[in-house]
Amino acid sequence: MIKNGNYNELPSGYRELFHLKLQEDKKTALIVNIAALVVASAMVVIPIFMGVDVFSFLDNGSFEFFIKLIAMLICYGIYIYAHEITHGIFIKIMSGQKAYYGFTGIYAYAGSDIYFNKRSYTIIALAPLCVFGIILTVLQLIVPDGWGYVPYLVQIGNVAGAVGDVYVTIKMLASPKGTIVRDTGINMTFYADECYLKRKIS
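Above: the chain's sequence. Below: its structure in token form.
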């Protein structure tokens, strides 16, 4: 056992419960992507119904629009990498071990060979959503007038992009007591204590 009750090796008596690999599980990936689209759409539509036009920058002059659009794209590009680095920072905090990073051609990821318990994995999975949720909200409040949409649109990406993290967290929390997970970034394998599973069956 290492830091915070996590393990660097699979504990004796544990067996694989199930695994997730969204790149290969087309059905689950479709559900997650649809959910992300619904969340993103809601974050655009709800403010409009409340009288806030999140696309007001389209009414600006072409040069100002171009500058703000470039700023938004740069900020979102930085956010994508910062999202994974945040996962990695919390992997380090919860285990004492460095994460590794990669890119599948579709998405970037932070992974680890550590076996995390429910509490640690929940913190790691939801850290970017919470951290950048706060940072981007603060930025919306302090940026000059006319620039608030930039952090808000990045916020849409933050919340919608975290749907996959929320999904695996729900799966983890719904798993049997004592479940641990090894998340390499592209493949998440969940393990449960055989003794506990036998007691539940009996």
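The chain has a mean pLDDT of 88.
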